[in-house]
Task: inverse folding
């Protein structure tokens, strides 16, 4: 358990909070690139408890779109700039026609007398925004923006990545913590039947485990007391969950916490997900996910259609939510799934974290051995908040010289040898990287760990 003050320290993200100061050292996902495609050129954004407006500000020398991100209320009389007009590289307020560029400079106050100098004294708060891997990212910190690390999701070509998002009505921290909890999959995502429906959206654990003919549903259901190893890394945490099948075989699942609020997990032998739980404010968050393929190009239209069928625009709310009890069916809970909430594991996760309340009261929780990843992450989070309070730079902030110091990270999910699993999972990850059609970096620690062996293709 922790005190209310300790809980507030690691959950609040407003501009004047210690946690908010930490978050402003990192690029934050602000919107999907898809949201500003077609006719729509302006979208409202609420991020880190600030109300903003994102708009298409023009094109760069290569013809790619550029973006502006401004405070949402017009500095004239407070009208909503999310309904503004995009005109010749600027955003014009629909109330009196005041116009601003992407840097927040006032370009025009047309209702004022000719020769008025009012514009020269107006500056709208503005943040930098760039598109990368299907997401528009915002830099809300002070000074120069850091470099993006060379994660797989940023290194992959556009043809091999797909991005999506969803709104969860809860604090970002409890949303993140479900993703770094290897034990919950044996219960929350338990299915009582093992048919293979691996191609269906949301049914991540419905295929056979890599390297065997054992259905993942059976492995998770029958081996529900995993040994969990947690390792501190340069990017955050590596979590390894081991489920021993017998003396010869062990199921190995390697996932990662990517600081500050992301994680990287295996989706299949061909694809991984890097996901961020981005604070909208203290009581809401968006998950942003980038799917990375190591084999063939992704089917973006199909993947988007699958997910939009389960979400409602423009807020990207799940169609299964508190208002309809997440589709709960007591007969299904008795006969088919542990939750009775359908076969989409994303809905299971959403129910779990939203059921904790808008912001979980951690003064009442009792953590166990299986929560060691949660415990390690909270310790890391407090340490990095303290670093910022003391004027130091937190982890995972890079410049051009250091941005390649973190790569990957490596993930794996499959059945390996009970003795020798430590090298087995690294071999699987390296083999996937070497066989990929694009240049996939091999993380330094993985390359070092497998340097003395020959990876068979």
Result:
């Amino acid at each position: 358990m922790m005190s209310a003050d300790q809980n507030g320290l690691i959950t609040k993200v407003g501009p004047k909070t210690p946690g908010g100061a930490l978050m402003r050292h990192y690029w934050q996902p602000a919107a999907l690139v898809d949201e500003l495609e077609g006719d729509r050129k302006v979208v409202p954004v609420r991020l880190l408890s600030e109300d903003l407006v994102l708009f298409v500000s023009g094109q760069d020398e290569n013809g790619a779109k550029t973006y502006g991100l401004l405070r949402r209320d017009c500095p004239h009389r407070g009208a909503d700039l999310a309904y503004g007009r995009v005109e010749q590289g600027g955003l014009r307020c629909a109330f009196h026609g005041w116009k601003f560029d992407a840097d927040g400079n006032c370009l025009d106050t047309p209702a004022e007398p000719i020769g008025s100098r009012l514009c020269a004294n107006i500056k709208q708060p503005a943040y930098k925004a760039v598109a990368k891997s299907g997401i528009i990212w915002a830099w809300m910190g002070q000074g120069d923006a850091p470099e993006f690390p060379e994660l797989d999701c940023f290194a992959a070509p556009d043809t091999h990545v797909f991005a999506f998002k969803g709104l969860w009505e809860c604090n970002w921290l409890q949303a993140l913590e479900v993703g770094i909890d290897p034990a919950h999959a044996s219960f929350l995502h338990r299915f009582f039947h093992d048919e293979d429906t691996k191609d269906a959206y949301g049914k991540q654990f419905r295929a056979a485990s890599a390297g065997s003919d054992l259905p993942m549903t059976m492995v998770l259901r029958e081996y529900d007391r995993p040994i969990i190893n947690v390792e501190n890394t340069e990017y955050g945490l590596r979590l390894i969950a081991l489920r021993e099948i017998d003396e010869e075989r062990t199921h190995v699942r390697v996932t990662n916490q990517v600081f500050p609020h992301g994680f990287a997990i295996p989706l299949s032998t061909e694809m991984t997900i890097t996901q961020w739980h981005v604070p909208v404010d203290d009581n809401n968050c968006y998950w942003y996910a980038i799917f990375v393929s190591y084999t063939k190009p992704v089917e973006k239209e199909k993947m988007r259609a699958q997910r939009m069928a389960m979400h409602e625009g423009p807020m990207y709310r799940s169609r299964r939510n508190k208002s309809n009890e997440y589709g709960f069916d007591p007969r299904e809970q008795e006969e088919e799934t542990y939750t009775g909430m359908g076969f989409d594991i994303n809905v299971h996760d959403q129910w779990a974290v939203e059921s904790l309340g808008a912001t979980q009261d951690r003064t009442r929780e009792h953590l166990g051995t299986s929560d060691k990843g949660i415990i390690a992450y909270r310790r890391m989070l407090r340490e990095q908040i303290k670093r910022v309070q003391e004027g130091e730079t937190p982890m995972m902030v890079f410049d051009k010289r250091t941005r390649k110091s973190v790569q990957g990270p490596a993930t794996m999910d499959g059945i390996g040898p009970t003795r020798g699993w430590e090298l087995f999972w690294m071999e699987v990850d390296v083999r996937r990287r070497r066989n990929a059609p694009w240049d996939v970096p091999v993380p330094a620690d993985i390359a070092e760990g497998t340097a003395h062996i020959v990876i068979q293709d």
In short: The two ends are 48 Å apart (CA to CA).
